[in-house]
Structure formats: structure tokens, C-alpha cells
Amino acid sequence: MASASWSVPALAEEVGGLRHAAVAFAHDQGVADPPLEGLRLAISEAVTNAVIHAFRTRERPGTITVTVDVSSAALVEAVVRDDGMGMSARSDSPGLGLGLGLIGSVADSVEFRAPADGVGFELLMSFRCGG
Fold first, then answer.
1. Exposure string (b/e) for 36-59, b if CB count within 10 Å is 16 or more?
2. Mind listing the pLDDT tens digit for each residue in 98-119?
């Protein structure tokens, strides 16, 4: 299994760089399309959600980490983790609320979970390779 991880401040201008690094890594490991475009979209949506929602009660942004694991070119797993406040309902959301549904439509599986250390939120997305 090949694995890579990137951590950046939770800022809007970091979304594109994280998306590019993760997709380039998967591509370099032999992942083609599908699921490469789905991975690109899902990571973009998940990181954007973390930037917008995870740190809204803080004066300064926290950290977002993206980890991509490629298992023998048959499966790609991506984890987007933040060290923010986790997931909760938000009546004042600046978005349309379509991100998680969009992620679910392109990933083969999606799992929401608390990180092992109990800080923040993790979104695990799995994509089968080759169709």
C-alpha cells in the first residue's frame, strides 16, 4: 500500500493545493479514471466543508489533514480530518448543503467518524478502481 499525507491551515486558498497534491499522488500510483475525477471532487468538497464549518467558533483557523492510501491499484481511500469542532447542524450555513450528498454520489463508501484522539472530525471516502 502506498500512502501520503498533507496538513495545511484551514484556509480557502489551501483547498486547491490539497486537492491537486492528493489527486497527483493517486495518479502517480496508477489510479486512473474512474475514480480519479470522483476523488478530485470529493476531496475538494470535504476540505471546503472543513474550512467553512469546522472552525467557525475560533478566531484563528485550525489544521486540515488529507491522507490518501492506494491499495494495489484496486482501492483508493482518502481521509479528510480537521481539528475543529466536528459536525453539527448549522442554521446559518453559508453553503447550499449539497457537499456531503455530492461526496456520497461519487464515492463507493463514506464514513463519518471521530478521530482516535477525540479531537475534530474525520471523513473517510473509499473509491474502487477500474469502474
1. bebbbbbbbbbbbbbbbbbbeeee
2. 667 789 889 999 999 988 888 8
Three cell numbers written together for 3: 500512502
- Burial (Cβ within 10 Å: 0-12, 13-18, ≥19) of residue 81: buried
Q: Residues 91, 41: contact at Cβ < 8 Å?
A: no
pLDDT in tens, 51-99: 988 888 888 889 999 999 998 768 999 999 999 986 655 555 555 456 6
Q: Which residue has the cell 491551515?
A: 9
**Stated pTM of the model:** 0.88
* Backbone angles phi and psi of 125, in degrees to 5: -125, 130
